[in-house]
Design brief:
Among the domains are: 8-53; 55-93. It is flat. It is built from four helices and no strands. The chain has 153 residues and is an all-alpha fold.
Length: 153
């Protein structure tokens, strides 16, 4: 930033003390410090934005190179696939158009018949009833009513 030595700082301080006066000097110093802090934060924000934009440019370049490489690989795969289809057609004596029959039978959708909401436990219901296993959830009020002591008359 600005290189100011200790002697220059002392000279500026003495001049500021004489010009401004000892009463207003702390307030002015506080204001100057706040403005310097804002300026430093602004410079740091600008630096970070510049760095971010440089990284973004690098990422865009990298993305372009990866996309070009993927396009080249896709093109080479397509050429090798077409060569393979030609070789296969020549070997089997059929045209490659017969491989892609537009009237091919596609199986119809059939629902699997599962009911995922239905819980299937391995323990039989009669055993749960005998041993006192809870099979249904109770609300708080129902639980209080169930376990409330009964009055005997």
């Amino acid at each position: 930033m600005i290189d100011i030595g200790l002697s220059k700082m002392a000279l500026i301080g003495v001049v500021a003390l004489i010009v401004i006066g000892p009463e207003k000097l702390p307030r002015v110093a506080r204001t100057v410090g706040a403005l310097l802090g804002k300026a430093q934060r602004y410079v740091a924000d600008v630096k970070s934005e510049v760095n971010r934009s440089m990284e973004l440019d690098e990422l865009k370049k990298m993305k372009d190179t990866v996309e070009n490489a993927a396009r080249d690989v896709e093109q080479s795969i397509q050429t090798s696939a077409s060569e393979f289809e030609k070789d296969l057609a020549q070997a089997s004596g059929t045209a490659s158009a017969d491989l892609h029959d537009p009237f091919a039978v596609v199986p119809a959708y059939r629902h699997p018949g599962k009911n995922w909401r239905l819980k299937k436990g391995a323990m039989p219901q009669w055993y749960k009833a005998r041993s006192g296993v809870r099979t249904k959830a109770l609300s708080g009020a129902a639980r209080v009513a169930r376990y409330r002591p009964q009055k005997f008359h």
